[in-house]
Amino acid sequence: MKPIRVLIAKPGLDGHDRGALIIAQALRDHGMEVIYTGLRQSAVQIARAAIQEDVDVIGLSSLSGAHKSLFPKVVEALKEQEAADIPVIGGGVIPAEDIPYLESKGVAKIFTSGSPTDAIAVYIKQLIHKETVQTPNKIAHIGIAVESIDMTLPFYQHTLGLELESVEEVDSEQVRVAFLNIGETRIELLEPLSDQSAIQSFLTKRGEGIHHIALEVNDIHTRLEQYKQQGIPLIHEEPKLGAHESQIAFLHPKAASGVLYELCQPKLEE
Which secondary structure element, helix H or strand E, spans residue 107, and what is its range? Predict the structure, then answer.
């Protein structure tokens, strides 16, 4: 399989290229061939260089604040050169509120400052090989740590009016769980069964409250492998058995600003 060819460019009058050079080296470390066009390139120059070099993807970097104008111009220049099939990604100092606009103008992906270089490389590989990560299907449940399910249930059943779906014990986690339906998701109450339970540790440190958010996914094995390639910190690198015989795995809270996320793949119906 031939190496992925990436063109790294600095459009406009941006006079700093340190970040672009770091990205270029990181992509080379991942086995990609990188062509760097240098500073102060026009959209037309970038498009022509991409075609001449027969690249698979263009990576734009901007620190000047002109990304909302410059990035779409590169996309348009590619269309005018009949090379709209070359995807464009971007990065640099780009406010989050500008991302929807840039994506609506044809930029495939924006990486804000602080994005791991491994994540950029993995995304390019997935993009070229058409293996991009699908978004989770939905919020499977919100886990809430409680001292006692029996003492807590009246609020959810009688005050909120939620329907109790089931109660079971998960021996592997030393926890008793109760699921209450709310729309397409659930509230999961978590009661520790022993001092060795992670829920008991949570209650000791923080008291009762939201413990985690569970996201329903399809192929949990593939997703975990992709996260490992991106350098995402994981609590579980392989799925384990959870409630309702689902496969579960937790991401480390430091991956998501202190929020504990669980991946949950439901058991296939027979």
Answer: none
